[in-house]
Design brief:
By secondary structure, the protein is an alpha/beta fold. The chain has 2 domains: 6-54, RecR Domain 1 (Helicase, Ruva Protein, domain 3); 61-167, Dna Topoisomerase Vi A Subunit, Chain: A, domain 2. Helix content is 43%, strand content 11%. It has helices at 6-15, 23-35, 38-49, 51-54, 86-95, 119-131, 145-158, 183-191, and strands at 56-57, 64-65, 79-83, 101-104, 136-140, 164-167. Strand 5 (136-140), helix 7 and strand 6 (164-167) form a beta-alpha-beta unit. Helix 1 (6-15) crosses helix 2. The radius of gyration is 21 Å and the shape is globular.
Length: 196
């Protein structure tokens, strides 16, 4: 990409750091940004430069918020849902299927990457459980090796509390045909079947 001006090359290199953005897409996006008017570019630039400093992390549940009071912690509920990332929280909120409170871990347990769930994070979770007089903890983590390891770790850590501990159901996607479902998903769906 040496044929392009240096600023354009630099912009494309940064855009390629985003997930799912390859060289050609980064190029297209760079040229698209050139077409933007000056005000939009300035606003975009200011938003990017202040992104990390303007977002706050709730001191209780670790959700990303943009003001002091956390809208998620203000709910009155004895259900607590544990998630891996703030993005997962917003995805679950979009469904309107859950009305309880949340706790965001920020990452999953991954011994291969030397990534542990640190003790202060667990202590914060336990403090929230006691404060909200939680009756049920829902572990809503990915169905991956890391998600399974983290779920088992949390289950063992929280068994000292009088809680119902559940995990999201895994199985067949809506509208799927059995012939196209992989073996692991089909096995999980079969094992996790419910009364009908």
């Amino acid at each position: 990409m040496s044929k392009y001006p240096l600023k354009l090359q630099t912009l494309s290199q940064f855009l390629r750091k985003l997930p799912g953005i390859g060289s050609k897409t980064a190029e297209r996006l760079s040229f698209e940004l050139i077409k933007w008017n000056e005000n939009d570019l300035n606003f975009f630039s200011e938003t990017l430069s202040s992104l990390k400093s303007s977002l706050l992390k709730c001191p209780e549940c670790n959700a990303l918020i943009d003001h002091e009071s956390c809208p998620f912690c203000q709910k009155e509920s004895q259900q607590l849902c544990i998630l891996a990332s703030p993005k997962d929280l917003f995805a679950l909120e979009e469904t309107s299927s859950y009305q309880g409170i949340y706790f965001v871990l920020d990452h999953l347990l991954s011994p291969l990457k030397s990534c542990q769930i640190e003790e202060p994070v667990i202590q914060k979770l336990e403090k929230l459980i006691l404060k909200k007089e939680t009756k049920e903890v829902i572990i809503a983590l990915d169905s991956t090796l890391e998600g399974d390891a983290t779920a088992l770790f949390l289950k063992n850590r929280l068994k000292k509390y009088p809680l119902k501990i559940s995990r999201l159901a895994f199985g067949l996607p809506v509208g799927s045909s059995l012939e196209y479902v992989d073996e692991g998903t089909l096995t999980r769906a079969f094992v996790g079947r419910q009364n009908f």
